[in-house]
Amino acid sequence: MFSLFVMFFTGSLLLMLTSLPTMLCLVRPNSWYGICLGAALTSPGHWYEINMCAGWRMFKVGMGTMITTVGLYFVPGLSVGAYYFSCAVMMVSLLIIGLYRTARHLQYYNYNEK
User: Fold this and answer.
1) 41, 48 Cβ separation under 8 angstroms
2) Distance (Å, whole) CA 47 – CA 71
3) Cα–Cα distance between 23 and 108 in angstroms, integer?
4) CA of 101: how far to CAs of 7, 12, 13, 76, 113, in Å?
């Protein structure tokens, strides 16, 4: 079970670290890192706001996954399969929610520019 712990912990840590540059507005508008779709590329102001919000969401996904990973690791009597399933479901669920909210944020900008 320790190898699963390391895998999920490292994955959540990498997700949090890769979200930091966009979250802190350290990435200039470009077409290869961050949200590079429609409304985000129309102006630098939109780029920074959309990517900052997306960065925060992905940071929260990583934090939620990390908390779940650490918390479930210390549950006595939890089987390896249950641990893997719980951590995987939490990570995928949080990613889907974060991506959905980012898509809704982009849709807001696309709707208001017309």
Assistant:
1) no
2) 36
3) 19
4) 26, 19, 21, 35, 19
Q: How far is CA 23 from the centre of its chain?
A: 11
| Mean of pLDDT values over 42-46 | 83
Reading phi first (left if > 0) and then psi (alpha if -120 to 50, else beta), residue 46 is in: alpha
The pLDDT assigned to 114 comes to 55
With a pLDDT cut of 70, the percent of the chain lying above it is 96
The Cα–Cα gap between 96 and 28 comes to: 26
Task: Output the six-digit token pair for 112.
Answer: 């208001």
Per the structure, how many domains does the chain have?
A: 1
Residues spanned by the domain of 88: 2-112
